Description:
Elements: E1 2-4, H1 9-21, E2 26-31, H2 37-43, E3 55-60, E4 66-70, E5 82-87, H3 90-100, E6 106-109, H4 125-133, E7 137-140, H5 142-149, H6 154-183, H7 190-203, E8 206-207, E9 213-216, E10 239-249, E11 257-265, H8 271-297, H9 303-316, E12 330-331, E13 358-361, E14 364-367, E15 371-374, E16 377-381, E17 386-389
Amino acid sequence: MEKTPPAQAQDIEAIQKALNDRGFDGWLFFDFRGSDPIARRILGLDAARQGTRRWYYFVPAQGEPHKLNHAIEPGMLDSLPGDREIYLSWRSLQDGLKAMLAGRRRIAMQYSPRNEVPYVSRVDAGTVELVRWSGVEVASSADLVQLFDATLTDSQLESHRRAARILRSLIDDVFGFVAAEVRAGRPLAERDVLNFVEGRLGENRLIWDHSPIVGVNADAANPHFEVPAAGSAPVRRGDLLLVDMWAKESVPGSIYADITWTAVVGDRVPDEVERIFRLVRDARDAAVSRAREAFRSGQPVHGYELDRAARAVIDKAGLGDRFIHRTGHSIHEEGHGNGANLDDLETHDTRLMLPRTLFSVEPGIYLPGRFGIRSEVNVYHTGSDAEVTGPPHQDEIRPLLD
């Protein structure tokens, strides 16, 4: 049995404390050809060095971690502390896994019962069966993943706040640009607005993973609309305009901000547009209020419950079938992080909303062929409150040409 130095001993101690707090006997990490990027991030492994054979890394609630590596790739986990066992045949893999887990009753893995939380469900069914064959209960690591891959450091939170302030200021710039072009009678299309948005993001030294959403009228009714390179819709007087932007600083470890605003390119807001916007706003605020109430009281609250709070407002108005996505998503170094989502529609997200996590609240109502309204804010769980970052957020829909 060989040993490697404890390069991440402090991280292991934090993991073990979390395991004990939650009643787990250990956390088993498994990867095959890059199948679990969550494991690689939490363990600090080089994403470019994936290997071609299965490896297991077991962090017990107490004691030293254990590695199980194939003979062809014995050094895949050398950066991590713990004892190492080498397997060659499939029989020795099974024997090694059984020995590694001996005496344990309940362990965590990147698994979700009935695929309830697919974002965490990285371990294949056969591997779960193999681990259960070893005599242990497999439970979901979903909240552990949040703790180690979705919480923010103080510096990360500040990076998010800076990005959020820039995005909020860019909303005014974008709407001002659209108003000026329309008033001047110059031809304007969604692609022109998108080019303006991306230009301003670049000027502010922000980066983003794919293009923002700029949609008018019926295109705004498509929650994941992508502006075509050519032939995008014209932006004209009287149109409804939706702008959804997400970006972060270019420094490694920076955190995204993600906001959506809507406006009318005219001198008045039609009554129906006003009514739909207010419903969306009220649904957004209902989810924020439910989060604030829970965080301030210390009451546990799950992602699905915040989704229900927003959805109830729109359901009551008889437009529940026009709210066709979850209420919000986790935000981290990726626009969609690995924390709890506000979702009781696409999934039943039973993860707890944890302190120091960040998430979007973005309900929407979409009327196909006509228009769509979405209003998005970002909320940070301070541990005792719900902080809406990047204020002021949108409380009224305004005409750009008034």
